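BUG: 3D viewer hangs when loading the predicted structure for this chain

Environment: internal workstation, default settings.
Expected: structure renders.
Actual: progress bar stalls at 90%.

Input used:
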Amino acid sequence: MRIATLVGSASLPLLGPTAFGATVAAQGDSATLVAATAQAKQKLGLIVYPAKGQTSAQQASDEQACYAWAQQQIDPLAKSPNADSAARAGKAKADSAAQDAAVKGAAGGAAGGALVGAAAGDAGKGATVGAVAGALRGRRAKKEAERQAEQQGRAQAQAQAGQQASSFKKAMVACLQGRGYSVQ
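Structure tokens produced before the viewer hung:
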């Protein structure tokens, strides 16, 4: 997602941390930048106090500048992770890894069933029953592997989003403190 942010008089295209819901779409749209800054502050839980008597207008200006600076400090080319696409990717990876699970299960079941069937007097029936049971076991194992891979993909995406938010917050706090604000 491309966003444009005003820094001084130059407009810089940036990719923003969508984990904060901050999307500044129009270049030079200061109202949108104000809203994005306020939203990021709220989602990050930042409380900013003007320790050196800055006016509210100066504080708003400094917060916007620090928001833009923080965007530049985190990897501006990194896209925010999407938990759904990460889950789909994990599921697809598990699917390709477990693609032959039902066939392998059926073959193993058929072999085991043939042995049991031979002891009971009908190896063919035993092999058929064993193949069906093995295929069902293989299918269940495949579904479980897909579910686990999907959960793992979601967890990785959430961890990455949390790490990105933490880096953004650190950058914003450092900037605001450097401008004489007390930040909690």
